[in-house]
Amino acid sequence: MRRSISRLSRSSKSERSSTSGDPFAAAPVRGPSPRGPLTRTVSRFSADPDRAHDKKVAGLPIDPAVTAAKLSLRRLRDAVDTTASFYSKYAERKRGAASGNLPLLLPDLAEWSRHEAFCGDEESRRVLHTCAAQLAAIDDLLAAEHAAIGRAAAGLRGEARRLCEEGLDAVCAFELALRDASAASEAATKALRRGVAAGEAAKADGRKAASLKDEKKRQAAQAAAQRAQEKAAAEVSQGEVSLRHAEEELARIASEAQPAALRSAADARQRAEDGPVASAAEGLRDAYGCFALGAARVLRGCQLPSGYCPTAKRKAPKETGARFASYVVQWTLAKRRGKAAAALLDEFAKSGLEALLSPPGEEAALELLAARCESEEAARRLRAVPLAEEAQAEAARGCGQCHSACVALSAACGEFRLLLKEWVASADEYEKREKARRGLAAKRDAAQAEVGKLSAAAEGAGAAGKSGGAAEKARAALEKKRGELARLSGEVADKAAANEAIAADLEAFAAGMAGGGGRSVRRLVCAPLRECVVAYAALCAT
Predict the structure, then answer these.
(1) Is residue 503 packed enough to be buried (19+ CB in 10 Å), middle (13-18) or exposed (0-12)?
(2) How many angstroms separate the CA atoms of 492 and 237, rounded?
(3) 414: Cβ–Cβ under 8 A, 6 or more apart, which residues?
(4) Which pTM was predicted?
């Protein structure tokens, strides 16, 4: 038995020397790339439990199969932790461009389409609201997808890790039992050697006592030597019994505990891989699949949120008493909503569409876990989660098309806003001109009243037979005021004609905005919006 233990010790030492460079024996595994999955790390201020355990069993005669099972389970556990953290961080990201979790939403356009000051027709109102509702529906699908990803990560972090720890506990318990039995064997061997050495010393003392000439001293020394020999014999007997028990325990551990530990480790690994690991892979596939199918339904006009009516942050302008105040309110409202939509589109286009639909580095993360699995089925399921090469190429093209459509819609909103700004300025110019016309009209009316007074004065002077100089002076003042009245009347008429021309243009533009021509809401906003939503939904349905 001791020879077999010695052979196990030598093979264990060679195994430890061959695996001393293994990163899982002393340090956690690293992820495949900087943007890939997170790594399992241990704080330098806390003890590494794996290293602490290995330190306890260092130098023991451990079978290489046990060490291999332990290291393999550690690799699987660390890969499970890494993958779970990778998906948890992706699913729990805060919304914003910095995290890459910025879905495409245009609530301002939906609110605009439902506003009483909307400047388009009913068809453009319907298109705007439907497109905005489709984006909101895709956002709901994204939230459901992220929740499903979070559940898959929780399954890895919970049940899969627990099973790995269960297998590791069995192996570690075996190693600690082997450590205790080896320590007991070593202690029994040392006690036996001490007993044998004490017996030899007692015999030497007895021989020395027999050579003493003094009877009393000889008898006392021989008695002491005899007691020492008896004590040493008892220690040798106890040491032999203890050594026999320790060797029996070592034999039991080698024949029973070791196979049981290996079976427990293999069973725990199999249950972890075929259970929560495979289930997590299927959960991820289902999450992505349900999202894609839902996006396809949204693209067809189905699964839209009922009663979608968001509120805008910026309030609508207030109407004044001006002639075209209602148009100014409509166009100013449209400008504000278009500006808000363009800002959201620009931020979305910069955030990166790839990070929105799936975590960057996903393929490397899943390959890391698949490489640690012994179950071919679990590894196959994990490797089947990311898109295939052709689908990745299609998704890349879809990202490019969606980005171009977002940029085009943002540009269209900008041009639409500039056009409305020009016509709001035209309406303001009309009000300034109309104010100036009213001022001239007031002067004209005042001149008309003066003409009446001067005419009456001139007639009165002629009837009274006043001197020729006074009558002439009255007629001259009348003629001058009549000339001023004619001039003012002409200017008022000219300004009125010019103002009416501007008013006609304003009315025509307002009618065109509510129509279906080239300068309508339907053509300027709805058409590029529909193209953007179709490109986005098609990308999500990949």
Answers:
(1) middle
(2) 136
(3) 338, 342
(4) 0.75
